[in-house]
Amino acid sequence: MSNNEKFLWGSATSAYQCEGAWNEDGKGPSQWDIFCHTSKLNINNVSADISCDHYHRYEEDIKMMAECGQNTYRFSISWARILPEGTGKVNPKGIDFYNRLIDTCLKYKIIPNVTLFHYDLPAAIAERGGWENRKTVDDFLNYAKICFEAFGDRVPLWATINEPKYYAYCSYLAGVYPPNVQDFNRFACVGYHLLLASAKAINEFHKHNYIGKIGLVHATGNVEVQGNDEASKIAYRNADLFYNKWVTDTCIKGYFPDDLFPKLKESNIDLSFVKEEDKPIFMNGTVDFLGANIYSRSYVKPYTSGETRININNVGANSNIREGVVIKGWFETAYDENVRRNLWGREIYPKCMYDELMELKDKYGNIPIYITENGHGCYDEIVDGKIHDDERIEILQEFISWMLKAIHDGANVKGYYVWSSMDLYSWVNGYKKRYGLVYVDFENDNKRIPKKSYFWYKDLIAKFEGRN
Ligand code: BG6
């Protein structure tokens, strides 16, 4: 890190998960509004219609970030707030809201880090095929241009898309996010279109003299494999291709990994969505930085038998669902009895922060990296007016120590964001799984109470900056 470049410490949210005001001031419905209001698959039967009401309380939230010593805030823009129909007429009140949000960040000396798409596709676009429809790529480009023109004079960090792979995976392979499809072919097509949309927006951004840099946010987790025989080595390569290189090679190097399309063909994927004319778009649409959301590693073993299937636990502590993945012909999840797990059965494995950062360095050299999300979800409670979230502190501390070690060992990390700034809606899980540094009392007027972890983070930032 050069001396004049300040390390960024912040926290993150996304529009649907925190804003509320789902139909206020001209906002159109998103795919998630419709899903939460109408789908039987919304198993926790709640919505983010109000959530923590960030739309009205953003100043209070940003002020708390500043008082914590945070110098950056990652949030996303709701596409349907800017363009209620996804295309066509711009909603001026939507533009006003994000102007206020950005200006409030700047007033408190907080650097805005803005994601254009964090899962909440306008319903009108979802109705005409969503990301399966190639036209959505240009609709996204049009929306991105509007945002760049409106906010590009003040936003230093942009991300095109949050977790293209994980979003496509949950929506089109696991089927737990709308439109709740389970189909490898449709998943592959959506994944391709998301990456193309990102590359097109980056091409556009780089044509202008905006003040900022632009990247893409990937759900990054290094792959580890259970054995070391030949089959295990193949499983490792397949899983790394599936989880990581598909996205990271494409957005950093500008082309898909050589083995991706042959492997997809082997799985009988119809690759007619891949067009020759897209090649220069990918090549010229590489990222200025990678946003890495790091929560856990992927522990895998060779594929044995059966159809592709994915179990995700969105229920919580009382569920007997064991999370796991079988990708037919590629790999399957291995279960490590020795690693501790959260209430949803996911591994708590902070060392993956170091392993992943060193792997990114090996694969992509000096590309700047922001840890755009890292967090710990659990059930928090108020005891004597306070939230003693010691487990979160312990886990985040471990993750951060591994990050600092990776920086020491040469990883080019520029910033770190805790997921999440305050408690908010967790996709499909609802409100019991909390990640915030600030507790939100959803039952009592959404009152904000800083958790113990908020004060721990404040202290950590101050120490890092040599202020105490
Ligand atoms: C990330 C997403 O993948 O994980 C966030 O970008 C999400 O939007 C976070 O909330 C935690 O996931 P979950 O399902 O536990 O809320």
UniProtKB/TrEMBL annotation:
One GO biological process term: carbohydrate catabolic process
Superkingdom in the source lineage: Bacteria
GO molecular-function terms, A-Z: beta-glucosidase activity
Protein keywords: Glycosidase, Hydrolase
A family per Pfam: Glyco_hydro_1
Gene3D superfamilies per record: Glycosidases
Keyword Hydrolase recorded: yes
Listed EC numbers: 3.2.1.21
Enzyme class: hydrolase
GO cellular component: cytosol
The UniProt record lists the keyword NAD: no
InterPro entries for this protein: GH, GH_1_N_CS, Glyco_hydro_1
Protein family membership: Belongs to the glycosyl hydrolase 1 family.
Name assigned to this protein: Beta-glucosidase
Organism this protein belongs to: Tepidanaerobacter acetatoxydans (strain DSM 21804 / JCM 16047 / Re1)
Classification of source organism: Bacteria, Bacillati, Bacillota, Clostridia, Thermosediminibacterales
